[in-house]
Design goal:
alpha+beta
Length: 219
């Protein structure tokens, strides 16, 4: 997990933070300094931390950067059948409740299409999470390549909030949405990209390079 030294709070966090603060204040007012009030304070601080919106140093690269903070849980080649109907390389990233949940554009691109599906709330690092609430994004890069993102809600996550929509023009590293409380993001790229990442590796949104073209060295 990256330690962010410079960050603000996402606008999507204002309401839960305010509610948590009021509960903490009322708990302390009624029960004084107690185990309950301490637990409420810890919860309040954790919610602030969850909704942090950090600045990131975007690398100068022609590759594909990570759209999310978290742990890589799969690196494989599968058929992407929602938009491209072709074999693509995929990396799946699991975000714990301690990771930053601001998703970022992995490449400069245009949003060609999005699809939203209501679903269940299985654990985001399980096979069953493909049935969860999810948002698909089909991106077209500046050199006309297809990149597909899938944002999954998780067991705790109950809402996906996109910041962009169809026809949006994205810069690499731009904020594209937030998934509230625990989640997963899958990224599909063309088969002529390569990666040195493996399951268990940690990645940082907007900074870690996931893929490079096959004739370029990963850094």
């Amino acid at each position: 997990m990256k330690i962010d030294y410079k960050w603000t709070v996402s606008a999507q966090g204002y309401q839960p933070i305010l509610v948590s603060f009021l509960i903490c204040w009322l708990g302390t007012a009624f029960f004084g300094v107690s185990i309950l009030s301490i637990l409420l304070l810890i919860t309040f601080l954790l919610i602030i931390h969850f909704f942090r919106d950090p600045e990131r140093i975007i690398p100068n690269t022609d590759g594909i950067i990570s759209p999310a903070d978290g742990k890589v849980i799969a690196v494989d080649t599968v058929k992407e059948d929602e938009f491209t109907n072709s074999e693509m390389k995929r990396i799946c990233i699991f975000l714990s409740v301690f990771d930053c949940h601001i998703a970022r554009s992995p490449v400069s691109s245009e949003v060609v299409e999005t699809k939203y599906f209501e679903g269940k709330f299985k654990f985001a690092n399980s096979l069953e999470c493909i049935e969860n609430e999810r948002l698909y994004m089909h991106l077209k890069t500046e050199d006309n390549r297809d990149v597909v993102l899938i944002l999954f809600a998780g067991f705790i996550a109950r809402r996906i909030v996109p910041f962009v929509s169809r026809t949006s023009i994205l810069k690499i590293g731009q904020r594209i949405g937030i998934i509230k409380f625990g989640s997963r993001i899958d990224i599909y790229v063309p088969s002529d990209y390569v990666t040195e990442l493996k399951a268990g590796d940690e990645v940082v949104a907007g900074e870690s390079i996931l893929f490079n073209k096959i004739n370029e060295k990963l850094v």
